[in-house]
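Section 5.1 Outputs to date
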Amino acid sequence: MTVRIQTADFDVSAEIAALRRGRPAIGAVASFIGVVRDVNEGNAVAGMTLEHYPGMTEKAIEEIVSQAQARWSVLDTLVIHRVGRLNPTDQIVLVAVASAHRGDAFAACEFIMDYLKTRAPFWKKEETGGGARWVEARDSDDIAAGRWRLKG
């Protein structure tokens, strides 16, 4: 398990290659890449700033990944989440899950992402034409996460 919180961008191809390197048991890698949109709730977004609580954020993500590893046959996971100022089209998050079979990789990747959206301590402030605003949690994210019924 690798969890990184960083301001720098990431190279998806290089990260997945490093996850797979020297691991012939890996038969599937499922990944998700989140990017900054230029519109949210009907308003143009010029950029966003992501804040987190160092130490607490990594611990929360590691717990989410541990839950995924307990539910599915996962060989390794990678979560990279950016913080700081980001512009539309910038990458925000990479979740990659390696397993022997695609079903486990897909399910674990989706689970991790659903819980990142609802359980990881990040705060997003969008810059719009009407000023800056904090992004509220979405009911749809809670519904998506709720279907997994997190253990513990």
